[in-house]
Amino acid sequence: MPIDQSEAIVLRSYHFGEQDKIVVFFTREKGVLRGVAKGARKFGNRFGSSLEPLSHVRIFYYEKERKDLVTISSADLLESFFEIQKDLETCFSLSYFAELIEAFSPSRAREDPLFRLLLTILRCLKDKGDVNFLSLYFESWFLKINGLLPDLTRCRKCRAALSGSGWLSIKKDGAYCDGCAPLKKEAVPADVGLFLEWAKKNPPTSREAPFSRSQLENARRALQGMIIYHLEREPKALRFLKGI
After folding, report:
1. Could you give the CA distance from residue 7 to residue 28 in angstroms, rounded to a whole number?
2. Which domain holds residue 59?
3. In the chain, which stretches have pLDDT less than 50?
4. Domain boundary residue among 79, 99, 118?
5. How many angstroms separate the CA atoms of 181 and 52, rounded?
6. What is the pTM assigned to this prediction?
7. Which residue(s) pair with 34 in the sheet?
8. Model pLDDT, residue 80
């Protein structure tokens, strides 16, 4: 049976039977795939640490017709991000990213921009970048790549520029100015627009974040509200993250 291969990032794994694991991995070419790694729980197994969460790997697998799970034959570790997960906030943040990708990304669909985004964020965190800033960068581009980030710079009714805060629409598909808002329930702080404009023109950075902590918190609160709305639930990892 022909073996396929792909560059991938392991999202998570869990026990299957007495000696095996189910591995959820995110590939450049085919999006999210799930596979059985036989014998992965045995002492001294051939996979080593390559199936640890958020490992960047070259994975080899084969598929059977009408089977949802592929069979993983081997995996070569390209880059490990194990060390950065010793920090609790970073660990839960990465679990949150993985949960979003698994929930939103269709199986067997090319996801190169999102793959590059995740790998770049991982490398910036490894280079001691600020986890709050990099998480907001990930959330903003995650929404944009999935077509879920509306124009928050202009009122969706009168099209006037929103120079200050606006009001988010009920369906999270735009913002209104003070004069046009039918319901002033959820504010969109000016910090959101400032960050989105910066993120559109700049790559993520491991240097000092060009925004204050309060600006980051304001923007994250707004973007997380959009994510929760479209997911129709609060991500489990995000609940733990908020409790830290």
Report:
1. 6
2. 4-79
3. none
4. 79
5. 47
6. 0.93
7. 24
8. 96
Residues 116 and 217 in one domain: yes
Please name the amino acid found at residue 175.
Answer: A
Q: HEC states along the chain?
A: CCCEEEEEEEEEEEEECCCEEEEEEEECCCEEEEEEECCCCCCCCCCCCCCCCCCEEEEEEECCCCCCCEEEEEEEEEECCCHHHHCHHHHHHHHHHHHHHHHHCCECCCCHHHHHHHHHHHHHHHCCCCHHHHHHHHHHHHHHHCCCCCCCCEECCCCCECCCCEEECCCCCCEECCCCCCCCCCEECHHHHHHHHHHHHCCCCCCCCCCCHHHHHHHHHHHHHHHHHHHCCCCHHHHHHHCC
Contacts of 171 (CB under 8 A, 6+ apart): 229
Q: Do residues 108 and 66 both lie within one domain? A: no
Which pLDDT score is estimated for 2? Answer: 59
pLDDT at 81: 96
CB atoms within 10 A of CB 84: 20
